[in-house]
């Protein structure tokens, strides 16, 4: 299958320039089509291993192309693994997975019904998802971020989505990174650890999270975190709180699902009180309507505390990214909502590099330029019944 070539619009970048950080080459992607093409090129050139995790693996042009590449590498004798999430990829036909298995790909469906029924805590296993989006190729290349294996090519507006019979939220904007360098081994190790855990194989204990003193970090630094929130010491807030706390000028948050709670929310409010400009970009139309309503109930609280809110129009903003003081970047699969902060398996990178923060900041500015700024009048114009629906959705935020 052929992926459609995306057409560009003024100011709409398909991917950022390559940036060198601590001896590693990083390239950022804001659109799915160039990311899928880069992944395919690396998979096809692999010589020893290809390991992939994806929350959603769709049976479309992108999914078929990636599946073909994985099968080809497995048939060539490489170590090829694919882990997908049972809930996120529930519509993926079994025939595609069987074709991959027949080609020699090691396939695992995370928390499938059969696995859940054997788990000691059934309800907990049923609710927890593997939300990570990772790929390692050989010994040097890794991908991480918020993009799933889904064909989003050729969708620039709501009209484009409807013409292809897709929901209005299709054509996602997101952030994903390609890393080339020796510390790819750390990402491979955490993927291998999860693989062995779900297959009940012997494995080393995961390394303890050593949260650095971000205020004294070297000029160039990379930190990787694989969260497993069922363990208190490996919850994302342990990293995000001290990172936000050291902000002095600006915080930009580009987030698909923005409903922070507890310490993360308190630190964002404290940052604004000490004079930090805080800007939050969210989708105007989410792929989950209840999330839309819950976030809009939250708007008044944020606006009263001086936090600026922007709704990204036309495209579904699916990114999970932050830029702090033009120096720090956060890229990964972790939303600022209850599910990511307290339930799901997530991966995110914290990167100290002014050049990379500039590139990520440019992507965020593009989102703001395609957004409308939310103000108090917007909140007041919502009807009584709409505000009640918003309030009801907010009360359900722990389960969204």
Number of helices: 14
CATH architecture of the largest domain: 2-Layer Sandwich
Query: Helix and strand string, N-terminal first?
Result: EEHEHEHEHHEEHEHEHEHEHEEEHEHEHH
Q: Largest beta sheet, briefly? A: 8 strands, mixed
Percent of residues in helices: 25-40%
Describe the protein's topology:
Blueprint: E1 19-21, E2 24-29, H1 32-44, E3 49-54, H2 61-75, E4 79-85, H3 94-103, E5 106-110, H4 113-118, H5 122-127, E6 134-137, E7 141-145, H6 158-163, E8 176-180, H7 184-198, E9 221-227, H8 237-245, E10 250-255, H9 262-273, E11 277-283, H10 289-304, E12 308-312, E13 320-324, E14 328-332, H11 338-342, E15 346-352, H12 354-369, E16 371-374, H13 376-381, H14 384-395
Parallel strand pairs: 3-4, 4-5, 10-11, 11-12
Antiparallel strand pairs: 1-2, 2-8, 3-6, 6-7, 7-8, 9-15, 10-13, 12-16, 13-14, 14-15
Helix pairs in contact: 1-2, 2-3, 8-9, 10-14
